[in-house]
Design brief:
- By secondary structure, this protein is mainly β.
- The chain folds into two domains: 1-38, no CATH class; 39-391, Methylamine Dehydrogenase, Chain H.
- The chain contains no helices and 36 strands.
- It has strands spanning 3-5, 11-14, 17-21, 24-28, 74-79, 89-91, 94-99, 103-108, 114-119, 130-132, 135-139, 144-149, 155-160, 170-172, 175-180, 184-189, 195-200, 210-212, 215-219, 224-229, 235-240, 250-252, 255-259, 265-269, 274-279, 293-295, 298-302, 307-312, 318-323, 333-335, 338-342, 347-352, 358-363, 373-375, 378-382, 387-391.
- The chain has a six-stranded antiparallel beta sheet with strand order 3-4-21-20-19-18, with no helix packed on it.
- The radius of gyration is 20 Å and the shape is globular.
Length: 392
């Protein structure tokens, strides 16, 4: 690859290159449109008093700056009357979560009281709310992305895609990014929902986009890792990785980490545009659906082998595993040297980040696939029987 730069750090010319390492192929598209090489990356963790989107922040690192009490107790619960796969968002003292009944709920973080309920035409599944500038965004199984006033639950705008939405929205500046099962990745105006650009792929866009330095990264159901410029939707490059995935990538220190249905966790070097390691448990070979949390040199995620795995971020070597009683599709969150994660066995676990030892568990009474949200010293998670619990 040959790159010519001017003194302001803007890309002028990139010559197309096809590089191979064994069976691993990196494609670099030709490009003559510039992007800022000095754009600042969004923080890996949100402010301690909020958890405004899936995985906390646009890089999807799954790290919270808020540290819950060491001795946890259930502070309140709310019965939403239907299954919850959507992971909660927390902003301005409010909890936002989607429910299979087709409702977006706003609850008080202080006591769990219902503040408002917004109805959509079809069910809300795994799409999790994103909150920015007083607006809540969420997708539904009808393929519609909704923008809702966070204060009172009134509709601001909606945008219809061609199929169901399981991806979670990410807000970057004046744009909302969302994937759809119509195999398209969309960039919309956050203000009014106008389509700004779209990128068609070869399969469902299930994953939530991770964002760093003005680029959105998608681990695709088309077995391709996509790098997409947010300003105009231009695909900068793709990296085929040879497996389907439902896991969203975490972007930390110039690397992307995500699991696959081929029973592996992958690490990609974004600058080199190549795979740097693959992790697979030596005995138990099951898919990874959970999205990774990355902290203190460890990549932590759940597996359908009923275990939570911690992997060395530099080398891909396994560091520890923790065995639950069912698959772990919930995506863990790291805060204060601890791992917080749900399991299909109905239990919410707290683990030591360094060693994987269990520190605490709570029986929710129903399967957990949603991920915890942590803010202001509190943890919120919903279960498949519709119960939302706040710990602190």
């Amino acid at each position: 690859m040959v790159i010519y730069m001017n003194l302001t750090g803007r890309l002028l010319v990139m010559l197309g290159v096809l590089a191979t390492t064994g069976s691993f192929v990196v494609l670099q598209a030709g490009n003559s449109q510039g992007f800022s090489a000095t754009a600042s990356s969004p923080p890996l963790a949100p402010d301690a008093d909020g958890w405004p989107q899936f995985r906390g922040a646009p890089a999807l690192a799954g790290v919270s700056a808020s540290v819950p009490p060491q001795e946890l107790k259930a502070l309140w619960s709310y019965d939403a009357d239907d299954a919850i796969e959507s992971s909660a968002a927390i902003a301005d003292g409010r909890v936002f979560v989607g429910v299979a009944s087709g409702h977006l709920l706003a609850l008080s973080l202080a006591d769990g009281s219902l503040l408002w309920k917004y109805a959509v035409e079809q069910s809300i599944g795994e799409s999790s709310p994103a909150v920015a500038d007083g607006v809540v965004y969420i997708g539904d199984f009808g393929g519609t992305l909704h923008a809702v006033n966070a204060a009172d639950g009134t509709k601001i705008w909606s945008f219809k895609t061609g199929a169901e939405i399981k991806s979670s929205p990410v807000v970057v500046g004046d744009k909302v990014l969302i994937g759809s099962y119509d195999a398209t990745f969309y960039g919309l105006s956050a203000k009014n929902g106008t389509l700004l650009w779209k990128l068609e792929t070869d399969n469902y866009v299930h994953a939530t986009p991770a964002v760093s330095d003005g680029i959105a990264y998608l681990s695709g159901c088309d077995e391709v890792f996509h790098a997409v410029r947010i300003s105009d939707g231009k695909e900068l490059y793709v990296v085929p990785f040879g497996a389907n995935t439902g896991s969203s990538a975490a972007i930390v220190d110039g690397r992307a980490y995500f699991g696959t249905y081929s029973n592996q966790v992958l690490a990609l070097d974004l600058a080199a545009k190549k795979l740097i390691w693959r992790y697979e448990h030596p005995v138990r070979h099951f898919p990874f659906y959970s999205s990774a949390a990355v902290a203190d040199g460890l990549v932590v995620l759940g597996g359908r082998d009923k275990m939570v795995h911690a992997i060395d971020a530099a080398t891909g070597e396994g560091r520890w595993t923790f065995r639950t009683r069912a698959r772990v599709d919930s995506s863990p969150v790291v805060a204060g040297g601890r791992v917080y994660v749900g399991s299909g066995d109905g239990r919410f676990y707290v683990l030591d980040l360094k060693k994987g030892a269990k520190l605490w568990e709570f029986d929710m009474g129903a399967s957990l696939s949603a991920s915890p949200a942590i803010a202001d010293g509190r943890i919120v998670i919903g279960s498949h029987d519709g119960r939302i619990v706040c710990f602190g």
